[in-house]
Automatic annotation (TrEMBL), chain A:
GO terms for molecular function: phosphate transmembrane transporter activity. GO terms for biological process: phosphate ion transmembrane transport. This is Phosphate transport system permease protein PstA. InterPro entries: MetI-like (IPR000515), MetI-like_sf (IPR035906), Phosphate_PstA (IPR005672). The chain crosses the membrane at residues 20-46, 78-99, 111-136, 148-168, 189-214, 261-283. The lineage of its organism: Bacteria, Bacillati, Bacillota, Bacilli, Bacillales. Keywords: Cell membrane, Membrane, Transmembrane, Transmembrane helix, Transport. PANTHER family: PHOSPHATE TRANSPORT SYSTEM PERMEASE PROTEIN PSTA, PHOSPHATE TRANSPORT SYSTEM PERMEASE PROTEIN PSTA-RELATED. Belongs to the binding-protein-dependent transport system permease family. CysTW subfamily. Its main location: membrane. GO terms for cellular component: plasma membrane. NCBIfam families: 3a0107s02c.
Automatic annotation (TrEMBL), chain B:
It is a peripheral membrane protein. GO terms for cellular component: plasma membrane. SMART domains: AAA. Its main location: membrane. Part of the ABC transporter complex PstSACB involved in phosphate import. Responsible for energy coupling to the transport system. NCBIfam families: 3a0107s01c2. This is Phosphate ABC transporter ATP-binding protein, PhoT family. Residues 13-254 form the ABC transporter domain. One of its GO terms (biological process) is phosphate ion transmembrane transport. GO terms for molecular function: ATP binding; ATP hydrolysis activity; phosphate transmembrane transporter activity.
Amino acid sequence: MSMFEDANRKQISNRRKKDLYLHLLFIAATSIGIIALMALLINIVLDGIGRLNLDLFTNYPSRVAERAGMKSAIVGSIYMVLIMAPISFVLGVGAAIYLEEYAKKNAITRFIQLNISTLAGVPSIVYGILGLTIFVRGLSLDRSLLSGALTMTLLVLPVIIVSAQEAIRAVPRARRDASFALGATKWQTVYGSVLPSSISGILTGVILALSRAIGETAPLVMIGALTFVAFLPSSIMDQFTVMPIQIFNWISRPQVSFHDLAASGIIVMMVMLVLMNISAVILRNKYSKQI
Amino acid sequence: MSTATQAANQTLIHIEQLNLYYGTYHALKNVNLTIPEKAVTAFIGPSGCGKSTLLRTLNRMNDMIDGTRIEGLVSMGGTDIYSSDVDVETLRKKVGMVFQQPNPFPKSIYDNIAYGPRLHGIKSKSQLDEIVEQSLKQAVLWDEVKDYLKRSAFSLSGGQQQRLCIARALAVNPDVLLMDEATSALDPISTLKIEELVQELKNKYTIVMVTHNMQQAARTSDQTVFFLNGEMVEFDQTETLFSNPSDKRTEDYITGRFG
């Protein structure tokens, strides 16, 4: 008589089977995403690799696919991010600091909070309509780089605010107390203690939001960014185009050679996005080591 | 302060008919207490008895909790610290605090100490160097860290971090040092080091400590105050309070019958 004899072997084997089936289901669930992504990547690389040469970066768009490049689109995208980044950082992080550190926790604050969270889920085309009304027509900024950048700022603000708030909220109460107990004012505490503890999370949120903006097309189409720009914007009031719009334009052409060109454009854009995401990870690791 | 007042251990903090409410919760009930300067006063009592709350009224850290209401008088050196004559920033510069968990900033050891002086406008590098060295020496940490001042404060052990926090509090040159269960997260050896440090520091500073550990109160303090349910039950010389308590509840608590 062994001490293990009263075990219900059948019941245990059923439990194990259930574990196995679910294990397989979870692997399948994960693979579908990865397989779809790989299929997309391979398809695009095969189509686009032929046109991925220096001309793509140095030529302006052209009616002739062999001569067309996306110089103006790449530069337009970079300019847009350069304008957006400081504005959305200051506004987004400022709002997050206000809501987390200064605002009283009352009904009004909760109402604002609810609105911001809702805005983060509003379709991007709606921001395009808003940008068209406010910046293009209302402030008469026209279809300029500035209009586009400000519209995109509106789009990413809720995302930046929410992620910055989360990063700030994660700073332990004790870090603030330590600063206040030394006689710091609120701003001194925010600047000296809260921000150093949360900057990696804030920057990660900002970079991911900016990389989302790089890929957005709809709001810029709405405010009337051009699809054929054979010059570089020389001021923030100039007309402009960005990478996803150029890609969209090439794809909507009937000729196959333009489709291949679009595929190379997608590769360029994806490399740029991956670089931004990697820099977000590097920043996070760099700062989180100190905390 | 002159040596004459030091010897006499005059009253520094004077608390009169102090009531404190968190919303509708009556956390401190009619507390009357005097705390002498350049001595160690310990607050003891079971959890939730109000001892930490009272400690935090002394540097007005309770102000930051929404719904806190305070009645009565807390004066320090003859000035009502809740009056409009006193800036809370100045008060907290004069009344330093060390918390239960070591809470260094995510900065270097040097920048942790220099944080306070910089807040109050000291920018000169040589002056800051001097303050950092003096503060770390006072907290008996200098010899352990003098070669690693640029290293993160998190590279220190828990006990070292707590001494760093003490040094940080001393760096703004306070008169009073509040210690809120400052050793409860530390091992016995680190605790002992901090207790020895407290004995050193009381020659220069007025120390008020909250502790759960009655042996610690008995070992390190000159006066002990026993709290229960928001009331001050007994206040006496530490020796007297522990050997011959006048209140039955104090006796029950210190002999371990509850708490």
